[in-house]
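Q&A log
Question type: sequence-to-structure
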Amino acid sequence: MAAAAVTARHIFVTGQPGVGKTTLVMQTVEQLKASGVEVHGFYTEEVRDGGRRIGFDVVTMDGMRGPLARVSSSGGPRVGQYAVNLRSFEQLALPRVEPKSGSRGTLPVYVIDEVGKMELFSQGFVQSVRRLLNQPYSTVLGTIPVPKGKTLGLVEEIRSRRDVKVYNLTKDLRNQLVSEVVEAVQKSHQQPK
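Response status: OK
Response body:
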């Protein structure tokens, strides 16, 4: 008798910077909410001043916003020209990726956009993501960077999990993948855990 196939409980999207990972996640979130699924978590958004990118904000699914990183010569760990504001990130993101039941007693889908270099400076975030991925009744919709240079431990853990499906987003696949990702998240969210 053949072993039963493991169905992905967690859906992650990867792709080059600027290809539309966050856009795809937000389109998926809109469709999930329209079908009655409660969504917790956060996404990151570029901050621009006069057309020039000056940083990134963390934006929660319940509408809170705060700085994740800014072009700066001081403060916090650095990724290139950006200083990461760990305090702001942890205050906003960590409570929203802790496993819990939704307001209607159902289990929410957790959005984590992104599990990247800036976010991984927070050990609290690393621990919360691992807890959430190991929670038997959770479903995560997240984004991870494409591998380049030094590997990121948690990103590689996510890629290698049997209960994770990773979609590689390209410009050619952008429109096609939205419905595929929505379907995968809904299937994962409804399956007995």
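Response note: The first strand starts at residue 10 and ends at 15.
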